[in-house]
Amino acid sequence: MTDANLAAIVLAAGQGTRMKSDLPKVLHPLAGRPMISHLLDSIGRLNPARVVTVVSPAVRAAVEPVVVDTLIAVQDPPNGTGHAVMAARAAMAGFTGDVLVMFGDTPLVTEGTLRAMQAARRGAGNPAVAVLGFRPDDPAEYGRLIRGADGNLNRIVEYRDADADERTVGLCNAGVMAVDGAVLFDLLDATDNDNAKGEYYLTDIIAAARAAGRICTVVEGDPDEVLGINSRAQLAGAEAILQNQLRAAAMANGATLTDPATVYFSFDTLLGRDVTVGPNVVFGPGVDVADGVEIKAFCHLENCRVAAGATIGPFARLRPDADIGPGARVGNFVEVKNARVAEGAKINHLSYVGDTDVGARANIGAGTITCNYDGFMKWRTEIGPGASIGSNTSLVAPVTIGAGAITGAGSVIRDDVPADALAVSAGPQTNKDGFAAGYRAAKAAEKAEKGKS
Ligand code: UD1
Ligand code: CA
Asked: What is the pTM of this model?
């Protein structure tokens, strides 16, 4: 149910210059989706009445399609985090509940933390602002939280504006705030840009709230959860944290990971019970693996389904819309794309199977290739149940192999094969008796003659 007293503003106007990228920072992916989508997902779990994403003209076209479920506010030109929130003023008109203000570059914040922030904002003393704080190993350039003797927050000082004493403070600003929406814009109006960057800082609303006689409070969070991403190194750090969480969750749900540190998941990977995943397996987005499946080492899967009891790999690639049936086997150096492989079918070695239906219990011999692309269009291959495709067969689509049919090794199959028929396309074999021995003798004599001259 919608929480009529909760709204969120997500700041995403910065280009993220420290990333040195043409892609806006908040769109850099983590576990297979843009970092801002992780954050919006956590926010969504609190069912806020409205969510506003603040973009700049420079990033708008790229960011807007990713945040379709939110209102868009434009900050033009970006002039600080406080200035960004001011840009959301019109979108927030009439709202006086609690406002979560978040940074699109701090994507690992969880639903639980957001709920704790909301509770703190509504808690004792009616604080104007609850700020998420944390104690990183290296406080680096994070803003420092300056508290009074009573433990309440008096102000936030940005690293560049801090003196040597303030820089020794280990408690830092994570960038998430829960603000009393009745005063948010009044507090912002009370701030100025008289600081090292010449920008309007969101962090200055703390001092403004204190000056207005309100208290502010700190909720301490887990450093791994509030990592801000400003550089590629921090992006990799966040990916590592997320991957460890996804590995732990997969194991907690009943999957065996032989070497967890080498398995890479997407945010939405689904593994059933008693799935075994060998070393060096990568799951792209949209993978659904049912119970009892074994995925051997060095496989790459994306946007595909694997039914119960199937065996994949080692060294297999399942591309989008591969649909592997119960108990089917896809072996080494096999690529499957947009294909249904029915129950018990086997594609064990060195094959490409694309735009294909493989019938139940069909056997696809080593080196079989579906020739699905004529240079202009893609065509389908239909292989009936129980068919046996000989090694090194080329199936030139569109083509249909009937149920129980057999193709001879090395055949190029251009025409449909009726059920239970044998199709061979290579010409009859001729043996020339003694030819090889004669050939070797002639060549040896030739070489000896050359050596003399
Ligand atoms: C900010 C905080 C700092 C905190 C740190 C946590 C301020 C002034 N500083 O610093 O106290 O420790 O985050 O990670 O708030 N953005 C806009 N418009 C702008 C500027 C920024 O939308 O004009 C957005 C960015 O896209 C980004 C977020 O706000 O998602 C934070 O901006 P960034 O420049 O990364 O702030 P930090 O220097 O990291
Ligand atoms: Ca940042």
From this structure: 0.92
